[in-house]
């Protein structure tokens, strides 16, 4: 079933990732899919009962979300200098 959203709503919806790109209905391979696809990162957000679920945790595909806190980056972890004097 194809996504049927008000065109004005679709005009203002954007991907919740950091780049905030516009969304399009369906996917490039299946324009009738019940998803909204980000035009920048390619994430696909489900549309359930006519309601777009714009949560990064619910998205499929696309690039992985960047870690804004830098967790796991050894250069930004405070422990890299521990023990050196």
UniProtKB/TrEMBL annotation:
Q: Where is the composition biased (Low complexity)?
A: 62-73
The protein's matches in Gene3D superfamilies, at most eight in alphabetical order, are given as: 2.20.25.10
Coiled coil regions, renumbered to chain: none
Provide an example Pfam family for this protein: Trm112p
Annotated region Disordered: where?
58-85
The Acidic residues compositionally biased stretches are: 74-85
User: SUPFAM superfamilies given for it?
Assistant: Trm112p-like
**Family under the similarity heading:** Belongs to the UPF0434 family.
What is the protein's given name?
UPF0434 protein FHS23_001687
Q: Which organism is it from?
A: Prauserella isguenensis
């Amino acid at each position: 079933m194809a996504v049927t959203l008000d065109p004005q709503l679709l005009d203002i919806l954007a991907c919740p990732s950091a780049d905030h790109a516009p969304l399009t209905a369906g996917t490039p391979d299946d324009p009738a899919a019940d998803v909204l696809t980000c035009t920048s990162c390619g994430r696909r957000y489900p549309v359930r009962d006519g309601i777009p679920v714009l949560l990064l945790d619910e998205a499929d595909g696309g690039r992985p979300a960047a870690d804004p806190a830098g967790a796991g980056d050894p250069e930004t972890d405070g422990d890299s200098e521990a023990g050196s004097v």
